[in-house]
Amino acid sequence: MTGPPRLAAIDVGSNTIHLLLASCGPGQPPRQLYRRREFVQLGLDVALRGRIEEERMARAAKTLADQVVEARRRGAERVAVGGTQALRSAQNGAEVAEVLARSAGIPRVVIVPPQEEAQLAFDGATMTLPGPELVLLLDIGGASTQAALGRARGLCSDHSLALGSGTVSALASGDPPTSEEWRRMQREVGQRIPDLVPPPPGTLVLGTGGTITNLPRILGRPKNSSLRLRDVEKVIEIFREIPVLELAQRTGMDQERVRLCRGGSLILAQLMDILRLSSVRCSERGLRDGMVSGLLERGDDWWRAVEARGAHPKRRSGHQSALAHV
Amino acid sequence: MSEDLTCGELARRALADRHQSVRWAVARLPLPSDLEAVHDTRVALRRLREALTGLAPCLTKKDLLLVDRVRLGERELGPLRDSEVRDELLTAVLGPVAVSWDRSDDPLAAAAYGNSLLPGGSELRSGPRGFESEARRGLADRLAAEIATARNLLIEGRGLRRLARLAPPSAGRLGRAAQQPARELALQQLPKLFNTAARPHGSSAQLHRRRIRVRRLRYRLELFAPVLGAGQPAVVEQLRQLQSALGHFHDLAMLVEWMDAASRSQPRQLRPALRRLTVRVELEHQAAEEEADALVRRLDATDWWVAARRATSA
């Protein structure tokens, strides 16, 4: 195959296993060629039992193997696979990572530390920005949330929370959730998000992750539109009234994604209020773009070393979060 | 203790005393500075109703019609008292806040003051946690409006007049059981009340119902106090503490419901902060429930109810 090299990044998340194939021309940010995503929900097992059960592990292994084959079939020269909060927090996370790597025929599934996850998402989200402006990135994942502040394409200071759309949504089984279930979700979010210092005025606020990019669709807007706090609250009102199936049919979203967005929207609203953000601009790029970019610039050895905390070349060890309230 | 007191004599004393309490309390209702007037009136009405119910066998049909009128009076005071309780609890849990029309830090009015959260604004006055101050004041304003409306309805409407005209029970003309010893009547009624109050609870809803049964038992014990044993005051005091703990838990549950509903009518920008405030009240509610539950279970575990029943009838 001629043309710029093609690299792939697969993120084994708490909700989904998600493949990005990108072509990487010299001096250019990676161009997204192909995306594929499957809901495996490793985080659900972790939330319920603290570990990933055999059945879900087998499903994840098959999904990952299929995605690796697909990436190679489409010309990926190298494939980086990273696991996030579900693998980090599962009692058998390391064992699952080994099983997944073996079944996919790759050297390893790297368990990405939270700070590295934040930095990679930050790298991905800011790679196309023109100047070194100050950026706050909110990344709401399935079982963790990162708020990262820094200059575009530079080192970021992050605050990572072990709270995500999947962990919060798992607290409600009703459709729509009952008042009591909403309260349970609100309690979880309200108690777990600490005081965070609002970013300086003029900071560009970006958002990434399944919740933030999909919430505009609930309001009938295109994916990746900007969100104001009042928009997020409007979405929450809709979630309180309308069942998943109806919303999925109305918006064309996966039912599972709609369900996950319920919890994610509560997290986003709280973060926007505590950080005093008037709006969040959705970023099409994030963690996987950061992985591809890092792989391109720094190679396989760098990717394998990410697992060792602080291995990111930009990151100083013991870096303190500028967002955490003193 | 007057063991030979008849039902008729007890009815004359108790009903006159309770009716007088209602009249005194109702007279205080129009005074906005009297913060306890509504509460005291409601308690006085409940005690009167409980006395009418307890002494029903020796009362005439006409007197018993009074029960419904008293209940109606209690209902008319309900909205005002509920709002007052919410206000007290919000202040206790979330701290006091001034209800004012100075809206310089209100995000909705902030455009006039220059607010970075609104397009074209400049600076936002910082609060402790997002919009918590504004959200708290939104609740206080809503409560102030609710209290004012309920008070106007009560004072200006027919509610107060109806309460003021509540006729005294006809203590002179009593029913057939008037000559029955009051102690006998007490001993007929109290076992059942003790049994229902002692019925174990398994859920929050049952715990709430238990509170009502405990209150009924307490008022009935107070009614029959002149003919009961020496242990009665101690038992009543214990029931009062129990009722207070159970009431606190129930009031907080009601406050959470109210905050949930009130949040929906508040500006969307304030809702995340309102949810956090609600969470704080919920945590207080959980603590109150645990405390009330522990108190009741402690009594249950020691056969307190059996001992209390014995102490009051000894």
Describe the structure.
Chain A is built from twelve helices and eleven strands. Chain A is of the alpha/beta class and 326 residues long. The longest helix of chain A is centred in the first third of the chain and has 20 residues, at 54-73. Chain A is globular. Chain B has one domain: CHAD domain. Chain B has helices at residues 7-28, 37-54, 61-94, 132-156, 159-164, 182-198, 204-223, 232-264, 271-301, 304-313. The termini of chain B are close together. Mean pLDDT of chain B is 83; it is low at 100-127. Chains A and B meet through α7, α9 and α11 of A and α8 and α9 of B.
Short description:
The complex is a heterodimer of chains A (326) and B (314). Chain A is α/β, with parallel strands linked by helices and 326 residues long. Helix content of chain A is 45%, strand content 19%.
H-E order of chain B: HHHHHHHHHH
Shape of chain A: globular
Distance between the termini of chain A: 54 Å
Task: Tell me what the CATH architecture of the largest domain in chain A is.
Answer: 2-Layer Sandwich
Q: Stretches of chain A where pLDDT falls below 50 for ≥5 residues?
A: 316-321
Greatest interface by residues involved:
A-B, 25 and 25 residues
Biggest sheet architecture of chain A: 6 strands, mixed
The average pLDDT score of chain B comes to 83
Subunit arrangement of the protein: heterodimer
CATH class of the largest domain in chain A: Alpha Beta
CATH superfamily of chain B: CHAD domain
Low-confidence stretches of chain B: 100-127
The count of DSSP E runs of length 2 or more, i.e. the number of strands of chain A, is 11
Give the neighbour order of strands across the main sheet of chain A: 8-7-6-9-11-10
CATH architecture heading of chain B: Alpha solenoid
The computed structural class of chain B is: mainly alpha
